[in-house]
Amino acid sequence: MPSFTCNMVEDILASDESSTRFENFCVFLFCDVDGIDYVPTSRSYDLGRDGRVASMTSSKEQSFILCSLTVDYAKKAEDDLKRLMEFKSPKSIIFCSSQKISEQAVDKLESTLQAICPGLDIRTMGVDQLSMLAMKHPTSFTRYYHAELSELKSALSTGDTDPSEVTLTGLRIPDVTYLPLRRYYLILAWRHQFHHLKDQCFG
């Protein structure tokens, strides 16, 4: 059982400003999800893709991962696909976004991308879908967002509790007025999501 909830993952991913970290998280998450060795691409001149299949002999060697932290995820996806097609003939892509994407928006985006690249197999993953996958395959999330999770556990721990031993069962949220101002709590307060976290974790 992972030591975090979907709401925690959503808030941490939605506030991430490091495209490199988000890309690495997505690449290694889908290594676990698909059972395929994806690898990140170079930080410069990535040619529109953020991850690709490692083995050049794989039948899925033309599969790629595209990622976006931007609010205008649709434009980013279109631009990256067009750039990718200048150098490759993609058969399938996984598009990952830190934004919430409705099913209607997913259908619209995938139709647009398939018009650009007919026959392309597309999986679109917004923050909701990524959060659920991270719950089932927690290794990548805990690897790349360990600091945020540690800060949250420190904030939830009491004076006589080791933060590393904090779990999500049977805890009472301490009075945050007397805790150091931690980045994660500022994010939650700004997004007005603290009550959702409280309800899901401690009911």
Describe this structure in words.
- With 203 residues, this protein is α/β, with parallel strands linked by helices.
- The protein folds into two domains: 6-142, Transcription Regulator spoIIAA (2-Layer Sandwich), CATH 3.30.750; 145-202, no CATH class.
- The protein is 48% helix and 11% strand.
- The protein has helices at 6-15, 19-34, 73-85, 103-116, 127-136, 139-144, 146-156, 183-191, 194-202, and strands spanning 38-40, 51-53, 63-68, 92-97, 121-125.
- The protein has a five-stranded mixed β-sheet, with helices on both faces.
- β3, α3 and β4 (92-97) form a beta-alpha-beta unit.
- The protein starts with 5 loop residues before the first helix and ends with a helix.
